[in-house]
Amino acid sequence: MPSVDRLGHVAIRVQDVNRAVAFYTGLGMRLVWEAQDWCYLEAGPGRDGLALLGPGYKAAGPHFAFHFQDRAEVDTVHAQLKADGIHVGAVHDHRDGTASFYLKDPEGNWLEMLYEPPGGIPSNQS
Q1: Which of 91, 98, 116, 126 lies deepest, with the highest CB count within 10 Å?
Q2: Measured between alpha carbons, how far is residue 96 from residues 7, 10, 100, 116, 126 in Å?
Q3: What is the pLDDT of residue 121?
Q4: DSSP assignment of the chain, as one string?
Q5: Mean pLDDT of 17-22
Q6: What is the pLDDT of residue 56?
């Protein structure tokens, strides 16, 4: 099975996205992506990420994501986990060039297995 490249981001639930953005950008994080009910910030040269999920965001809940270097690795990990009897969600190719799927670890924690293209997640911030 392919190895995880890095722990890439953590997603947390927040009640007020704007207030949370102000707090985390005040700590030096960069706002990379902003939508109506969620946003994504990065810090440091390794692009460690933090997703802030607003009350209306339903596509995913709090989780942490393992990043892979190659798109095919996500499919391989998905197939291996499924073969091992682990319930995994479908692999989705996203509009930003990433691909991912979600699952729960044996303790019930949500995980995302994510391919991020070289150069990182494109920003919608000008």
Answers
A1: 116
A2: 19, 18, 11, 9, 16
A3: 66
A4: -PPP-EEEEEEEE-S-HHHHHHHHHHTTPEEEEE-SSEEEEEETTTTEEEEEE-TT--S--SEEEEEESSHHHHHHHHHHHHHTT--BPPPEE-TTS-EEEEEE-TTS-EEEEEE--TT-SPP---
A5: 96
A6: 94
Amino acid (1-letter code) at residue 12: I
Q: Is domain 6-115 classified as CATH 3.40.50.150?
A: no
User: For residues 27 and 117, what is the distance between their CA atoms, to the nearest angstrom?
Assistant: 26
d(CA 17, CA 37): 7
Closest CA to 67 of 122, 118, 25: 118
